[in-house]
Amino acid sequence: MHDTPTTTGASDTVKLGDKTVSRMAFGAMRLADPAIWGPPADRDHSIRLARRAVELGVDHIDTADSYGLGVVEDILREALHPYPDHVLIATKVGQVQPRPGEWVPIGHPALLRHQTEMSLRRLGVDRIDLLYLHRADPNVPFADQVGTMKELRDEGKIAHFGLSEAGPEQIELARGIIDVAAVQNIYNLTTRHWDHVVEYCTRENIPFVPWFPVMNGALAQPGGVAAEVATATGSTPTQVALAWLLARAEVICPIPGTSSIAHLEENVAAASLRLTDEQIASLTAAVAPAAE
């Protein structure tokens, strides 16, 4: 017998910028090759995958100019353009990949502008729904980086601005220059050093978009608490991990990524999984958050 679902009544949607979107989104990074360095071996498959996400009701798709060296933005345009009005496409600038597996933040205003112009062209739009500063460049004044994004917004090239891998102090600094529509940090059941940012975003009603939202390791293995909850709920450990995120805070919008249509369908289905309060508590207690 399955446990009784929790009655917390968490919303299935969130206001992201000027659109209300489903909280379970899609991270498009793996539409590129496995190294995120170039085109996929099967471009048609990546196009089908992007289209299937929208067919399943996903209306928030996250990418970056550096994924596949721009290839992922091209694929999204080919798969979905003209984009349905209800679909929000978010992308990111401010980080480059000089070689596979190496990511370097570069926040010079001229480069941020160039990257934004290229994203506009590849996505086939006049205005980007949501543009993140992918990483803050420690060698460029933060106010200059955020100020450039405000200029781009004021020019009508971006609708909303977000920050990635940022703490409360940096978010506050940015909010003194421009509205922050979303914060995207790594966060999952076993990687919780940004717990204090989740709390901050909850207080401030800022959508928190966890990247790498599906944990791996012992908790998902036979005998692990996620595996046990999956057995009790007739689901999978991946779905349990995603459902835990949705229960963690109503501002959380996971962006699980995959190159598999079957895994995409599994991820989207996790939005309907309701865990009991006891299950949520056991999952939360299974790994103590790292020190801030």
From TrEMBL:
Keywords: Oxidoreductase. It holds the Pfam family Aldo_ket_red. The keyword Oxidoreductase applies. The keyword Oxidoreductase applies. Residues 23-286 form the NADP-dependent oxidoreductase domain. InterPro entries: AKR, Aldo-Keto_reductase, NAD(P)_OxRdtase_dom_sf, NADP_OxRdtase_dom. SUPFAM superfamilies: NAD(P)-linked oxidoreductase. This is Aldo/keto reductase.
